[in-house]
Amino acid sequence: MYTPQDPTTQYPRPPFPPQQQDGPGDIHEMDPAPDHGEESYLGSGRLAGRKAVVTGADSGIGRAVAIAYAREGADVALSYLPEEQAQAEEVAALVEQAGQKSLLFPGDLQDESTNAELIEAAVGAFGGLDILAIVAGTMPTVDSIDDFETESLDHVLKANIYPLFWLTRAASPHLKPGASIITCSSIQGFLPSPQLAEYAVSKAGIANWTRAMAQQLAERGIRVNGVAPGPVWTPLQPAFVPNEKIESFGEQTPLGRPGQPAELAPPFVLLASQEASYISGETIAVTGGMPTH
Ligand code: NAD
Ligand code: MG
């Protein structure tokens, strides 16, 4: 990941073998195996001494972010769903191997109290909080407005939007100048696909919330930014997207392939670090060259 090379051939390209999973999905059932930086990401102390919470930290982008944060010197609290315990324990082991503290916190973030408990557990374990990376998300597909169900929209907003408010409110009293909040939008928040209206509106909302909260917290010296991934090779895809889209996954990007979770970690590290001291309210697109506007 540090050797100059052609990014179009750096990681696997489609076609991919057909594969489907039940949500929330397991990285070990993916073919080819995704790269979360387990072997590739090297830290350089850019987050030394920081204390982080990462949601969705068992798999995919959140797993890559947790690994990178630890290797950059941060203690990391890992939020994930209870059924993802085994994958989360692997990440906790990698955090500890990096010489940092980890905290395992299973729970459904659709439940308001879980959000506050997560923050309190992290502050209790680490003695503070400097970085809140809200990466968790869910992505049901609905082909037609004729099939729209209120429960589906309630679920998407509860999982993707409410935790922004709940986690940030809980974290607020602990955040000092220099702290950073990082959200995870999507290209879908800017250029929605027809089958992803519920998800896309939530992802647009995340980018919008990021701008609002950046203005609200600026006077306290707290920066708020986001990352908007394009197609990334994570269990979210086989869990929610039909096989005909898996086989050609990422093909539509100018780079001709999906991103690997490890390729999303660097912007999350930059935005958390003091090097991003003048960046706030921004959502950085990481899309393999697909324009977001
Ligand atoms: P992933 O399935 O590996 O990660 C999503 C995680 O969200 C799950 O591991 C789970 O722990 C967590 N989660 C879901 N619902 C939850 C709930 N109710 N309570 C607590 N945790 C919950 O997939 P990923 O692709 O790494 O997803 C991470 C983020 O990236 C999501 O916000 C997703 O929308 C976003 N994203 C992904 C892609 C992509 O192509 N994979 C593209 C753009 C944006
Ligand atoms: Mg997962």
Descriptive key words:
12% strand; binds magnesium ion; seven-stranded parallel sheet; NAD(P)-bd_dom_sf; single chain; alpha/beta; SDR family oxidoreductase; 293 residues; SDR_fam; 9 helices; Sc_DH/Rdtase_CS; Rossmann fold; oxidoreductase; binds nicotinamide-adenine-dinucleotide; 7 strands
Notes on the protein architecture:
There is one protein chain. This protein has 293 residues and is an alpha/beta fold. It has one domain (27-286): Rossmann fold (3-Layer(aba) Sandwich), CATH 3.40.50.720. It has nine helices and seven strands, in the order βαβαβαβααβαβαααβ. It has helices at residues 60-71, 85-97, 112-126, 150-160, 162-171, 197-218, 236-240, 243-247, 265-272; strands spanning 51-55, 75-80, 102-106, 131-134, 180-184, 223-229, 283-286. It has a seven-stranded parallel sheet, sandwiched between helices. Strand 5, helix 6 and strand 6 (223-229) form a beta-alpha-beta unit. Helix 1 (60-71) packs across helix 9 (265-272). The model has no long low-confidence stretch (mean pLDDT 97).
Write the layout of secondary structure elements.
Elements: E1 51-55, H1 60-71, E2 75-80, H2 85-97, E3 102-106, H3 112-126, E4 131-134, H4 150-160, H5 162-171, E5 180-184, H6 197-218, E6 223-229, H7 236-240, H8 243-247, H9 265-272, E7 283-286
Parallel strand pairs: 1-2, 1-4, 2-3, 4-5, 5-6, 6-7
Helix pairs in contact: 1-2, 1-9, 3-5, 4-6
Bound molecules: nicotinamide-adenine-dinucleotide and magnesium ion (MG).
Nicotinamide-adenine-dinucleotide (NAD) is lined by residues 24-25, 55-56, 58-62, 80-81, 84, 108-110, 135-139, 159, 184, 186, 229, 231-232, 234-237.
